[in-house]
Amino acid sequence: MTISAFILGSCSTKQSAMRDLENYSIELRDNAQYYTVRDWQNAVDDFKSIRQRLAKHERDYTPEEKRHIGELEGQCAKYMAQGAKQRLVNGVRNITSELSGIIEGIKGAFSF
Hints:
Blueprint: H1 4-9, H2 14-31, H3 37-56, H4 63-89, H5 96-109
């Protein structure tokens, strides 16, 4: 369900990194509620990968682009939290330790 293949296929330009973040936000919005634990692990890795690519071009972004990136990152975090919450509500309570690790991974992804 995640877009790992898409990310790996994109060249690393500042615009492609922003586009990947936009697409990833849409992916999370549309599908996060259906993610399995494995999907979440991949989602965290994908998010980290996108953020690393964005960081490579940090000096090249305009203030407006940086604001847009921040908005998209906030949306991703929101969708990740909502998706994780939905999985809990749907009866996946026996994977608490795995979800805790995923949440820690999400938190770690925000150190820019």
